[in-house]
Write a structure and sequence with these properties.
Elements (H helix, E strand, L loop, with lengths): L9 H21 L9 H14 L4 E2 L17 E4 L2 E3 L14 E10 L2 E10 L5 H18 L9 H12 L4 E2 L5 E3 L6 E5 L16 E4 L2 E3 L5 E3 L6 E3 L5 E3 L2 E5 L4 E3 L23
Antiparallel strand pairs: 1-4, 2-4, 3-12, 4-5, 6-10, 7-8, 9-14, 10-13, 11-12, 14-15
Length: 277
């Protein structure tokens, strides 16, 4: 039996739009603090305080315990260089010039979840780091551009893989996007590589994340002993961006958007960043 994917009501969509904007504003807030000499734990503490004291929300990550795993100990995931995802903030991890950093935040407010991530480059970028960060951004948007009623979730994976294959980059297979709403990780799983099994068709009211993890080297990964941190097996750089996508009657909309959200690539036709003036 195919997994049941939630079709959100107009009221639920507006609630998701509100919490999505707040989760994006959290990344706006932390941006000026992301620089050389700062520990990832300092960043996590700042975001935790801002989430509770300014946004009136809570971290959905702190204490999150999937089946068979230990509770996640921090409020955000901060993944540096060859860390693919779920990097645990630490006072020992000090950012340095040339690092590429993914900051992934999920907040919950009024019973709804907002989840997004961005890449940051510390100081003067390396050629390899800058290229990968830009490529991961384009990969995400290529997947999003495939979203429209009538297409299927597999079209996201096809578009993402085609984009990265042309650049000689690989996409992690084991992790993907997910449905989101009143549940943090809901159906469906969103693969960023093509699947050999049938996938659901997009219907208006579906909400999910698109968040391909793009490696400069091979796609293979290793889990560290902390039970959370995932790194590239060959120690190559990895980059990821994440946005929440709503299927509309004619295409899609982005729900995790705020003033600091980067503009999409020029070739994106399906969405224009709204004005917040």
């Amino acid at each position: 039996m195919a997994p049941k994917i939630t079709i959100h009501t107009p009221e639920e969509i507006e609630a998701m739009r509100r919490v999505g904007r707040l989760s994006s504003q959290l990344l706006d807030y932390i941006t000026p603090f992301v620089k050389a000499g700062v520990s990832t734990l300092e960043l996590d503490n700042l975001m935790d305080a801002y989430t509770e004291n300014v946004l009136g929300a809570k971290s959905a990550c702190k204490g999150y315990t999937p089946e068979g795993m230990t509770p996640y100990p921090r409020s955000t995931c901060i993944s540096v260089n060859h860390v693919i995802c779920h990097g645990i903030p630490s006072e020992k991890k000090i950012l340095k010039n040339g690092d590429i950093v993914n900051i992934d935040v999920t907040i919950v407010k009024d019973g709804f979840f907002g989840d997004n991530s961005r890449m940051f480059i510390i100081g003067k970028p390396t050629v390899a780091g800058s290229r990968l960060v830009q490529a991961a951004f384009g990969c995400m948007w290529s997947g999003i551009e495939a979203v429209r009623p009538g297409n299927t979730f597999n079209d996201i994976g096809i578009a993402c893989k085609r984009y990265c294959d042309a650049l000689g980059l690989s996409i992690v297979h084991e992790y993907g996007g997910h449905g989101i709403g009143r549940v943090f990780h809901a159906e469906p799983h969103v693969s960023h590589v093509p699947l050999s099994i049938p996938t659901a068709r997009f219907e208006p009211g579906m909400i999910f994340t698109v968040e391909p993890m793009v490696n400069a080297g091979r796609r293979h990964l290793t889990m560290l002993n902390d039970g959370w941190t995932v790194v590239t097996k060959d120690k190559s750089l990895s980059a990821q961006w994440e946005l929440e996508v709503l299927v509309t009657e004619t295409g899609y909309d982005i729900l995790t958007v705020s003033e600091g959200t980067p503009e999409p690539p020029e070739w994106v036709k399906g969405w224009k960043k709204p004005s917040f003036a």
